[in-house]
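#data-curation
PF: Archiving a pair of folding outputs for the training set. Convention for this channel: one message per protein, sequence first, structure tokens after, nothing in between. First:
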Amino acid sequence: MEIIDIAEPFAGCRDRFFARSVGTSFAVRASTDITEIDLYDQIGTWGVTARDFKAKLKDAGDITLRINSPGGDVFAGVAIYNDLVAHKGKVRVEVTGVAASIASIIAMAGSEIAIADNAFFMIHNSRTFAAGTSEELREIAAVLTKIDDAMSRTYASRTGTGIRSIKKMMDDETWMNGKEALEAGFATEITKSTEAKAKFDLSVFASMPEALKWPSADDSEPETERDLERAVMQDAGWSRSKWRAAKRIIKPNDEPLQDAGKVDLTALAAAVQAVSATFKH
């Protein structure tokens, strides 16, 4: 596997790609033999950054990376892929829900790539939101073309499929279930079906499978602390310091909140009032 050489043409905070998500987490469990990483979030500023991921690799040996991610920031994803390729230990990837967009490139870093029978791979062309002069837009289009070329070579090298076929799959926004991913060379084995621990609103994609449609509004409330943090920072416009202040008020008995289990929202209203009063100018 080769490093993907793509220079980021600009820096700064990006808009979030996926409006809603529940059950997200980024967890690491290390033992003497193996480090297990759960990448159950989008990639980039609003989820798992390349810096955060790289920090988890520092003392890791062999890795089992479980992926349930809709993708996100292509440059962050490429950086994560490159760090995994350069990692000295063995990397096993297990797709437990969805590995879409740049998350499917991250999956290509595994020497073994397992996918659950009911999970999905998705590959497509890169996209962005842009505004500017005709010259500026041509430059952006050239960058997207370079990204697509690099990703298609990575897919082709890993799967043994020809570049033309891969590019056609990317043009068509191709979704593959476990069996199809195995047959196409994107996975090396199929594992038993599993219930995904995180769900994402994938309506930004044109050909999303019916099985991955966002649940009804009644089922879309935050499930983890990570979900709630994202909600108040993105949708309510809170800063991280404001969120931390609210967390200190909400959490019971001074016990630390975790990234798993239901979030107790009974004290949220009081916390919002208290923090809002504190931060008023």
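PF: Second:
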Amino acid sequence: MKIAFLGIGIMGNEMATRLLDAGHELRVYNRSDNAALQALVQKGAQRCDSPAIAVSGCEIIITMLSHPDAVNAVARGDHGLLQGAARNSLWMDCSTVDPEFSRSMAAVAKKAGLEFLDSPVAGSKIPARNGELVFLVGGDESSFLRAKPVLEILGRKALHCGGSGQGSAMKLVVNFMLAQTVLAAGEAVAIGQKLGLAESQLLDTLLATPVAAPILSALRPRFERKDTEVHFPLKHMLKDLKLAKASLPAGATDLALLAAGIDSYENALSTADQDFSAIYQKLTENG
């Protein structure tokens, strides 16, 4: 299958590599040069100078970009994908964006004769590398079924959440839970440390109880090693929390944890290149 992949960042690189390894013909575009893009070309991907060129003749188009403005630019800007995509091609936007934006992209895609799925993922760098992502998909059932062969290469599960925008809505819910889980773990350990308990003892106990989310077991080695490698940027988690807040209906003001989470992640943000788990380190650093 001929596939265009637009956005070769932390996640895009791992996903595009899996598609290449599965034998698909891959055309790639990124707004800037990077080592991951060069490595994909060395493995056989065709590097393209614009989104329009990249998508030409492709049956499947995948975008994995950092925010709605980036998706809009790649889709509707000069030499954007909508200018080069063949009619009836399927565009899967795996970016984390707000539901209304996904619905607007679905509308412009339909006008251009394309099928569209908002297809954000639950999972970060290592699940992407191992094909263990969970896709949260919004759009027509027929398009979802059409995407299944690609989804099965990239993920362990694909959930059809409803019409256009509902995949993006579910992703904001999932990331809110993830943000709160790590924030709560950090505060719980910080409380325990102030009461004289060791970090290892606290994590052993918390993870042995039903109150700990499974993700904490996966993150524990990173917590204890104080691992700073970026798998999911903190700035993107903050962006997602703000998107969730902005997407709520007027008058939805009683969500105290969402507001507190935004404040906490803003306070933890110190550089552009931070993993979101840095909030745990910030909360426990004086233990």
